[in-house]
Every structure is written in C-alpha cells, then in structure tokens.
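# nightly structure sweep
# worker-07 picked up a monomer target from the shared queue
# config: single-sequence mode, recycle default, output format = structure tokens
# input follows
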Amino acid sequence: MRYYLAIDIGASSGRHVLGHVENGKIQLEEIHRFDNGLTEKDGHLCWDTEMLFQEILTGMKKCAEAQKIPATIGIDTWAVDFVLLDAEGNMLGDSVAYRDGRTKNMAAAVEDIIPFDELYAVTGIQKQPFNTIYQLMALQKQQPDLLRKAESLLMIPDYLNYLLTGNMLQEYTNATSTALVNAHGKTWDKGLRQRLGYPEKLFTPLSMPGTTVGPLRSEIRQYVGFESQVILPATHDTGSAYLAVPVKDEHAVTISSGTWSLLGFENAEPILTKRAQTENFTNEGGFDYRFRFLKNIMGLWMIQSVRRELHKKYSYAQLEAFAKEYADFPSVVDVNKDIFLAPQSMIEAIRQECRDTGQQIPEAVGEITQCIYKSLSSCYADAIHGLEEITGRNFTGIYIVGGGSKDGYLNALTAEKTGLPVYTGPTEGTVIGNLMVQMLRGGEFSSLREARKSVRNSFHIIQYGGET
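# output follows
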C-alpha cells in the first residue's frame, strides 16, 4: 500500500491524515490531532512555531509506530503569516499572527506610496488589514533593524518544510496571499517591493504545488524512524480545500467553511475590474495557476469565540440547538466588520453592533448564536449576488467543504437565504486537496478531473434545499 501524509494546520487545530487509493477511492486515516492557538508574547499575538513543529514530528512518529510509512508528506496552513530568518537560518523575532494589532493604520501607510486601485490592478488581492504587505510595513516602521537583518522570508508552511528538510522554497499559492505577487506574471512583483522598500533578497523564485522540497534531514529521519520526501501541496489551506470540491461544472459556488468562510469559484484568469475591487473580492493563486475568485467572510470564528468565552461549557451541537430555539430572532450584523476580528468579548461585540444599528440586542445564548448563523447566511447570499453581477454568471448550486460542512443548521439557512441547493462534504476538504496533489504526483490519478471524480465517489455528499 502506498501512503501519503497530509499535515493540515489551521488556526485552531492541526491533524495528520494518511491517505491511500483503493479500488479508485481515496481512503483516509487520521493519525494525530492537536490544538493550535495564539499566545501573547512581548505584547503581540503570536504562533508557537516550536510547538507546531514538535506536533508535526509527533504525528510522523505515529506513522512509523503504525507501520504505515508515507512515500510523501505535504504541509498546508493558513495564509499571510511568515517568519524571518538570519544568515544561519535561525528565526528572527517572533511569528506574529495576523490577528495582532500591529497592522493598525498600515494600509494607509502603504497607500501613501501605492494607491489601492493600483495595487489591486497588479495583484488582484482584496484589502484585509492583516495582509502580508501590511505586516511588512509594520515591521519597517516598528522594527526596521529586524527587517534589515533578515536574509530570508518564509511563509509558515514554507518554514515548517525548511525545518524538515533544510531547504527553503517559497510556494506560489501562499505567496499570492501576501498582495506582493503579480497576478498576470504569477511571480513576485519587483516594482511593488522596490517602491515599498522591502528587501529584494527576501523574495526568491516561486515554486508550484507538486514541487519536491527534499528528503527529511538526517536527524529528522532518525527521530521519526523513516525516510520520506516532502513535497508542496497548495500550502495555502484554502487552495487545498478548493481542489477537493467535487464540482461537475462551472456553475457552482464553493464555500470552504471553517474559522473563515471563503466563498467563490475557480477561474482561469484573475478578475481585476473596478467592481471586483470595490466589493473586495480577491484573486488567490491556486493549483496549476488557477485563480480562486472569492470573498473572505469571518466564518465560524464567531461561533468558536463565543464557545471559548462560555468556557466551552456547550458543544457546537448544543450551540446550534440553542440557535434553532430562537429561529425568529431578527437581528443581523455585518460579520466582516473589523470589530469581530479579535475582540476581547465576541458576545459583547455582537451586542454592541446590534445596539449601534438600532436592532434587538441578543441576551440568551441561543439569541447570540442565531444572530451569528443568520448573519453568516445573509452574508453568503449577498456575496453570491455580487459574484453574479461581477461575472455575469448564473450560479445553480453551492458546494460547502471543510469543518463547517457539518453544521447542518447553517447549511439549511444558507439554502433558504440563497434559494440554491447546498451540497456539503467532504468534511476534510483541505486534507483531501493536500493529498490529491501528492497522489497526482505519485501517479494515482492522471488528471485533476479524474481525482475530483474519485472524491465524488469516495465521500458522502449531503444536499440541503432544491430538488433531490
């Protein structure tokens, strides 16, 4: 049996999943799962990269213990965050997270040099306060010595690959999220980085999904107990998730649903119109130079935050049940407002927004969760309407992949609000997309079309709304 290992790390958790192909179907086996989250260090919200790497090694050792040795390994994570390295390859400073407040006012600082109209026309990337381009501006203004000392910049999955192999590659799909890659040239834009004064040495040729990073370093081989090759999947988790969507035609909208909801569709070329810019749609690079034309929506982060605030007293299923009890609660908030990005209290942020907009203020837990679910489904409907107006397409269905595909109430609300049938699954969309690149490289499938057909045949798809 030929095994492939997907290591998928999200903002709240990570997992190791072994995959293999049997009778044309993709089989999954979760080997290891671990928690992830933000830590406060020196006044900033940071990622604990040492912990993440140790968890990576722990999961790999479990593969050896199970006597299921992966031929290849691929790592994907969230986008936009990075580390800086010195000449010896050691990390400089901390891995500051995108939810940290250091980028406040940095968009304005960038726009003093490059107006956003011009930036969007080059990169096609939506304005988000945490984009890498703004994080680098924060470093330039707040820690210029750190930026001057840096010899290398690696996005989080690139850095983890480096720790495994000793090789530094910058992967294309994650790089596009920086807002520093030319959408037409599909490489770092020299003019942007020169005008902003970002060191040229930090930007090296980009590598595509399917590229071999290298074999494990000798000390890693000894520690985990086997040899394997590390390759690049679409290291941006959304890029991997979109690969796994079992769409049959171009008339479908995809939502990669998790901490964030990424709503859009795949396109052969970027869409860089003024309307796309105004409505804050983005063009993220994907597998085989495809583009994901989509909108970032706050997603289940709001529910996750409420659950943490309630000391995890209730399960997600209970929170969903509470929401159903208050199905008639009327208030709706704009989930994409910055106030919901990293509030001290998500519950109070929701209440304050309802207060400020003259709506009924949610008090009971069920009213709060109903407000979130209703707001998310309304936002999905608005985004799909915007997609249709910008592209002239008529969408006939919605495919939801990722952890949020298990949220039956939100899926049903989405079908109701949009008037479109909703197809949910597979749940492990990101993992499957990661594995698909490895399996394509390993010769298990001859084409992406064949791999997606296998996904449709391998995993259960549930439909909400529309004719069955």
